[in-house]
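Good morning,

Attaching, inline, the backbone tokens for the sequence recovery test we're adding to the shared suite. The designed sequence is right after.
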């Protein structure tokens, strides 16, 4: 009798991901919520296509996973190459609860990244579709994201429109841990 793999410790229920989007993935790829063991599957490596990624080790990664796994707040998903068990795409939507619009909520899409070897297969679009589905089915009255001017055409293909402007203020580099 073959040993069965233990169930993955997922950030949220697989049921929240649109089955229609999952069906559109290329063969050999699957989409699921981020799992507590995804550090070993290259989660940070895929994120490094976006920005600087500081690898603080698996224990720190798992602690961050636990902090983000708050109910009804953070939804991080991944696309996994089933043949290699490596992550090839990632994305997150987090839900901001507001006092505006009758205590409405807004979905914020962040950190969309696809491994360079997998780009051109519409994986980014599938990630956006899945995260938008989660946002809308969580009751959000809108889903928003920030992107570079170069990425505007891509997000327009995903059904998003340019609206207003983004502002940012980066904190100075720290030589110590934040106090909060």
């Amino acid at each position: 009798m073959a040993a069965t793999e233990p169930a993955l410790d997922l950030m949220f229920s697989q049921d929240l991901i649109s089955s229609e989007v999952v069906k559109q993935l290329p063969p050999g790829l699957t989409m699921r919520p981020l799992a507590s063991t995804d550090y070993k599957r290259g989660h940070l490596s895929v994120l490094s296509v976006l920005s600087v990624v500081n690898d603080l080790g698996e224990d720190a990664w798992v602690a961050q996973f636990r902090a983000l796994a708050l109910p009804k707040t953070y939804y991080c998903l991944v696309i996994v190459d089933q043949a290699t068990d490596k992550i090839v795409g990632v994305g997150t939507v987090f839900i901001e609860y507001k006092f505006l619009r009758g205590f409405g909520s807004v979905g914020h899409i962040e950190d969309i990244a696809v491994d360079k070897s997998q780009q051109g297969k519409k994986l980014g679009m599938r990630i956006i579709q899945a995260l938008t589905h989660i946002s809308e089915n969580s009751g959000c009255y809108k889903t928003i994201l920030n992107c570079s001017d170069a990425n505007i055409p891509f997000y327009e293909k995903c059904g998003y429109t340019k609206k207003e402007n983004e502002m940012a203020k980066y904190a100075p580099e720290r030589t110590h841990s934040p106090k909060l």
